[in-house]
Amino acid sequence: METVLWILIFLLTYCGMEFMAWFTHKYVMHGFLWRLHKDHHHKGHNSWWERNDYFFLFYALVSISCFIGWQYFGFWAGLPIGLGIFAYGFTYFMVHDIFIHQRFKLFRNANNWYAKGIRRAHKMHHKHLGKEHGECFGMLFPPLKYFKK
């Protein structure tokens, strides 16, 4: 029973991170921390690193804190929560930074219905370069309207 609960917490955390990605993107990145996210929409720099990448560090610290809580303070749910956050972050990195933005030249030829839908949705988000009017949605499950044939 403990294993089932552990798996359930992991899956709920992983799926809940999609909401957190949407919420953070809409209200934090396109809100009061726009100055960190702005360089993701305006490529006015020659660096591989973007100020936007600091958001990754924040979520990594949250995940690491869960591992520390599990290891040193007996917070047993810290392990599946930390792993759920980590797994979502890894998935987000693979889809957003590698597949969509091609920060590493991988998955360039992926052309199935899901890949096309994800690219189409992200392109619509980047259509608006300013702080306002950018359509915000989760990375893994954007609205179905982008998955047309």
Largest sheet: none
Helix and strand composition category? mainly alpha
Euclidean distance between termini CA atoms: 43 Å
* Number of distinct beta strands: 0
What is Rg?
Answer: 17 Å
Order of helices and strands: HHHHH
How would you sum up the global shape?
globular
Helix fraction, binned, reads 55-70%
Name the average pLDDT: 83
Strand content: under 5%
In terms of per-residue confidence, which ranges show pLDDT below 50 for 5 or more consecutive residues? none
Helix count from the secondary structure assignment: 5
What is the secondary structure topology, with strand pairs?
Layout: H1 2-32, H2 34-41, H3 54-73, H4 78-100, H5 113-126
Helix pairs in contact: 1-2, 1-4, 3-4
Gist of the model:
With 149 residues, this protein is mainly alpha-helical.
Give an overview in words.
The chain is mainly α. It has a domain at about 1-40 and about 50-110. It has helices spanning about 1-30, 35-40, 55-75, 80-100, 115-125. Helix 1 (about 1-30) packs across helix 4 (about 80-100) and helix 3 (about 55-75) runs antiparallel to helix 4.
